[in-house]
Amino acid sequence: MRLLVLSDIHANLEALEACLAAAPECDVVANLGDIVGYAASPNEVIERSRSLGNIFVRGNHDRACSDSEGPIGFNPIAAAAVRWTRAALSAENLAWLHSLPTGPVHEPRLPEVGFVHGSPQDEDEYLLREYGAEQAFKHTSTRVTFYGHTHIQEAYEQRDGLVERLMPACHTSTGLSQVAQLPLEPGARYLINPGSVGQPRDRDPRAAFAVYDREANSVSFYRVRYDVKLAQERIMNAGLPAQLALRLAEGR
Ligand code: ZN
Known about the structure:
- The chain is of the alpha/beta class.
- It has helices at 13-22, 42-52, 60-66, 76-88, 91-98, 129-138, 228-237, 242-250, and strands at residues 2-6, 28-31, 55-56, 105-106, 113-115, 144-146, 154-159, 162-166, 177-183, 189-193, 207-213, 218-224.
- Zinc ion binds at residues 8, 10, 34, 59, 61, 149, 151.
């Protein structure tokens, strides 16, 4: 069984379509949240995401765009994007976004896997560095936990009580589409961030996602070029903050 893991699409339709075109055929699709916020195609991205499957975790932007609390704790640019998104969403998509579950989410077909947005203990937590990963491992019992939120494509492995950060090897090159494979070791546990589809922040502007292959016992990390210019034009034409367009070209 193969699982496609998408996270932090952030209303970037061009990046999502490029990822789906580059992904191998998968049996299940999981979406780790922040489906909207930042870019200019929230309705299209929600509808495309819903057509792929039904495993969803709510992200902090999904929450801020759809509940009465709004963008509390968001920086001014992110808050402006939340207000724009809320006004742009159809009533149906707004209600659907509001109905998304908080992680951890589990899928009966994949009992060894868990899905969260931030960390297993807190959807708003940025899971960074070995210490953060150590704490997160204490709050999950699944062998593999997929998380997002940081927009950094990386993994943490826990083996014999030791936690190690693993960076996929596809970071350094600028090829059109690239894959790096992480074999899952017996007896080890993993926290895995597929990276951000719609707003990568690891200095690599290519869209990111991951594929878990249960039979092969591995996770493949992908980086895919997409039409950044078109996504930027949509952001500018929508009247969203220019910074949200500029950062896509820099991957930060
Ligand atoms: Zn995000």
